[in-house]
Specification:
The chain is α/β, with parallel strands linked by helices. The protein has two domains: about 140 residues, 3-Layer(aba) Sandwich (Rossmann fold), CATH 3.40.50; about 170 residues, Dihydrodipicolinate Reductase, domain 2, CATH 3.30.360.10. About 35% of the residues lie in helices and about 25% in strands. The chain is built from eleven helices and 14 strands. Strands 8-9-10-7-11-12-13-14 form an eight-stranded mixed sheet, with helices on one face. It has a six-stranded parallel sheet with strand order 3-2-1-4-5-6, sandwiched between helices. Strand 1, helix 1 and strand 2 form a beta-alpha-beta unit. It starts with 6 loop residues before the first strand and ends in a 10-residue tail after the last helix. The structure holds nicotinamide-adenine-dinucleotide.
């Protein structure tokens, strides 16, 4: 089914405020915005000239609003399952923030709910797939510029301390939410996307030295094997003493790419005609746009209006969480874990 007009509801105005801008940039009509915090609603209204009557603190007002056909869900991870189910049952198209959910039970339930509503489009918001440096790296790989991949590594290094200083019981401190599934899912999803395969074997370590507010490890290191003899590594730190970054390296038989999400260039090494590694890297400029919500919403909206494909399906979201859960399990058990991608 093709929508003639997109009328959007946005639930949660943290990351959701970026999505609101993306929806407005696309030209979608804003049906209603929702947040528990009236101050955030007021700010969004002032910024985008949204009338007060289009605001609510109860997300069920969006669920029950007949005009709204499309919803951006950007609430804390723990709430995704219940809200996705309610929205799909009400016939809404849903773009849900990553991670899909935090537990196996919840991701399975969301997959089932999406399957039960083929009339509704669903997109998981893996926004890194729209980050310019990552898009450029994907293109180099797909164009065969660095040959066959044999090693990939990425990281999610993001200090959460400031969030806990504002509120020690911030939803990110909930024991069901750990740094690997919550934030590390960006790095895991990036590697799954770049390799175009799912890691089938994972071994991981964890440590906890930085965030007293949480009971989970605040740093994890995972090594993994992908089909096609590709090795991978993911580092996650949610208390790190540095600026937020996702440093990433991709090694192929004909070249190497070194890049991240916050720099205005990437380093590209191509082997010379004799196959020697280049001593000097080429520096390729890239736009800095770590939260490219405009490009992300456009893909979702195009799918609604033109019935085009959505690459980041519910299965992509579920597989990324499954790989993250394997990292957490291996960190705890000290054993190799094979992620379960059976959805
Ligand atoms: N894609 C990304 O790069 C990225 C970045 C940050 C967060 N996220 C994800 O986005 C989601 C939100 O994270 P955040 O950083 O915006 O968190 P946040 O705490 O900054 O903001 C969440 C907002 O949701 C509101 N809220 C909570 N429960 C609600 C409810 N039931 N109804 C309406 N509003 C509610 C809160 O008042 C708050 O304003 C999470 O799933 C998170 O993992 C994604």
């Amino acid at each position: 089914m093709k929508l003639e007009k997109i009328v959007v509801g946005v639930i949660g105005l943290g990351m959701g405020s970026g999505h609101l801008k993306g929806a407005i940039a696309y030209g979608a009509e804003i049906g209603m915005i929702c947040d528990l915090n009236p101050e955030k609603l007021k700010k969004a209204c002032e910024e985008h000239n949204i009338p007060e009557e289009k605001t609510t603190t109860n997300y069920l007002d969006i669920v029950n609003n007949k005009e709204i056909n499309t919803v951006i869900l950007a609430t804390p991870d723990q709430q995704h399952r219940e809200q996705v189910e309610a929205l799909l049952n009400a016939g809404k198209h849903v773009m849900c923030e990553k991670p899909l959910a935090l537990t196996r039970e919840d991701i399975e339930a969301i997959v089932k709910a999406v399957e039960a509503h083929p009339e509704c489009k669903f997109m998981i918001g893996q926004i890194c797939r729209f980050t310019p440096a990552f898009v450029q790296a994907k293109k180099y790989i797909e164009d065969g510029k660095i040959g066959e991949l044999y090693y990939v590594e990425s990281e999610y290094a993001h200090d959460y301390q400031h969030m806990f200083e504002v509120n020690p019981t911030n939803w990110r401190s909930d024991p069901v939410r750990n740094g690997v599934v919550g934030g590390g899912c960006h790095a895991v999803d990036l590697l799954r996307w770049l390799v175009n395969e799912d890691p089938y074997e994972v071994y991981a370590y964890g440590t906890h030295k930085l965030l007293p507010e949480v009971t989970y490890d605040d740093a994890n290191l995972a090594i993994m094997k992908f089909p096609g003899n590709v090795m991978g590594k993911v580092f996650v730190s949610t208390g790190c003493k540095r600026d937020y970054t996702m440093r990433t390296c991709v090694y192929g038989t004909k070249g190497t790419l070194i890049f991240d999400n916050r720099s205005d260039s990437m380093k590209v090494h191509f082997a010379d005609e004799q196959g020697h590694g280049a001593e000097e890297a080429q520096t390729v400029p890239v736009e800095i746009n770590n939260h490219n919500a405009t490009a992300e919403f456009k893909v979702f909206a195009d799918a609604l209006v033109n019935d085009t494909e959505i690459e980041t399906t519910v299965y992509e979201g579920a597989k990324t969480v499954a790989a993250c859960l394997a990292i957490v399990e291996s960190s705890k058990s000290g054993k190799v874990v094979n992620p379960d991608y059976n959805f």
